[in-house]
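pinging the channel bc i need a second pair of eyes. not urgent but kinda urgent?? the chain im working w is below, pasted from the shared doc
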Amino acid sequence: MNQLAENSLETRNVHVAFGGIHALSGVDITIKTGMVQGLIGPNGAGKTTLVNVLSGFQKPTRGHVVLNGKDVSGDGPQKLARAGVGRSFQAARLFQDMSVEQNLMTAAIGTGLNKADAIIRSREILDWMGLGHHGAVLGGALSYGDERRISIARALALHPKFLLLDEPASGMNAEESQNLMSIIRAIPAHFNCGVLLIEHNMEVIMGVCEHVYVVDGGRSLANGTPREVQDNPDVRRAYLGEEDAAA
């Protein structure tokens, strides 16, 4: 097994069909540790379906999911989480009647930690994110922006090697987005993992990603640096339409 295979989460020619509807048609993506990569595309492009495939919530109809060189296409979300794949959701899904710290502890204990070590991990993550003062707050009492950040903290409590963030900046104001960008940018080095950021906020994508994948209509459209993707005429057409892209 080569070094790249040991530090990557990939989809290879992945297809997902729901009856006669093809949500994904031959998508290839490689997430590497130590960097932030982006996944963008118009509404209905297949982004969330792809994240569901990567995290085991959706089995591919065809093709493969490969984690560190091993085919894990049939593995469910719990098995993949234990193997190092963590994710957040568009909806935060926190336990509303549990404290923030308990939300993180639940995730940490799920990785095999005892209660004492789970408390330590949870508090370290919250302190690092500047959220330590929220530890005793109930999940249902958080502001919208804090709830989004805590959902990332809970995913980090899984000690992932690959962290999938599904539209974490959705609904955030400019100040909250800037704070989130600083956190995401620092995650790979601090937690020794790779990040895949799925986001509609192009300022966030361009501000934190080293490499960006684009999907449209369930197919791979382009990939490259943020600037290369931004200047790609096919990408501009997908977002803006033929006439606006030409203009």
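so The chain has a mean pLDDT of 91. and The beta strands are 8-18, 21-32, 36-40, 62-67, 70-71, 85-87, 162-166, 194-198, 211-216, 219-224. — does that match what u expected or am i reading it wrong
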